[in-house]
Amino acid sequence: MKSYLEITLLPNPEVGINFLWSKVFQQIHLGLVEIKDDQGYVAVGISFPDYVTGEKYSVLGGKLRFFAQDEATLNQFNAGKWLSRLSDYVHCTSIRPVPEKITGYAIYQREQPKTNKERLARRYAKRHNVDYETALVCYSEMAHKNITTPFIRLKSLSGDQEFCLWIKKTMAAEPLGSTFSSYGLSATASVPEF
After folding, report:
1. Looking at 29, 91, 128, 144, which residue is catalytic?
2. In a 3-state reduction of DSSP, which class is residue 17?
3. Mean pLDDT of 51-73
4. Contact at 8 Å (CB) between 182 and 37?
5. How many CB atoms lie within 10 A of CB 92?
6. Closest of 66, 57, 74, 44 to residue 18, by C-alpha
7. H runs (alpha helix) in the chain
8. Where are the alpha helices (DSSP H) in 48-116?
9. Catalytic residue check, 29
10. Alpha carbon of 46 to those of 6, 98, 158, 159, 180: distances in Å?
11. How far apart are the C-alpha atoms of 29 and 155, rounded to whole Å?
12. Residue-level pLDDT at 107
């Protein structure tokens, strides 16, 4: 990854950061969908430079970086166009070269924790040919699992359902891959950290 641009969410007492992340990321996803290839991948990866992992919870912070192998790919994505209606709430830098001095590499990937007992029970009932009530009893006895991974609440434009996009960060020893999902995430490709 040789080029990047950065978006900063501007503090606003009237608009919470989680609501703002939701609106910003919805637009980013639409923009990335526009540039995906025939296999459904994009050549733009993202990172959250202020990502903080804690024991009880983690946060994404207030910044987002887009990375690509070249400036042309970021120009094709055109972040300014997709975020123009949110210009009062975000600041977008120009495209810059990635600094030579970096602190390492990270993989930002989607995590899908199993947290909804009702959904899990419906799925179990369907797969194992048992009634829903029996399956629900099994899942009600499960210990509550505390998820510390930060997430962005999004709305599916195809199904009109809300869902959480959990984003997990893992450090990597070296640069890996260069293809990402239409969320800018990947389980196998890394982006530079600085």
Report:
1. 29
2. helix
3. 93
4. no
5. 18
6. 57
7. 17-34, 71-77, 79-82, 117-128, 132-140
8. 71-77, 79-82
9. yes
10. 10, 13, 23, 25, 9
11. 11
12. 98
Query: Which residues, at least 6 apart from 170, have a Cβ–Cβ distance to it below 8 Å?
Result: 106, 107, 109
The structure's pTM equals 0.84
CA 140, CA 70: separation in Å to the nearest integer?
50
User: pLDDT, tens digit, for every residue of 98-126?
Assistant: 999 999 999 999 998 776 677 778 878 88
Report residue 55 as tokens: 């024991």
Cβ atoms of 147 and 113 closer than 8 Å? yes
Supply φ then ψ for residue 86, to 5 degrees: -110, 20
Task: Compute the distance between CA of residue 27 and CA of residue 7 in angstroms, rounded to an integer.
Answer: 13
Residue 145 DSSP class: P
CA distance 159 to 156: 5
Which residue type is seen at 79? A
Backbone angles phi, psi at 171, to 5 degrees: -75, 145
**Of the candidates 47, 42, 48, the residue with the CA atom closest to the CA atom of residue 73:** 42
DSSP 86: G
Q: Give the integer Cα–Cα distance in Å for 156 and 106.
A: 27
Percentage of the chain beyond pLDDT 90 is 69
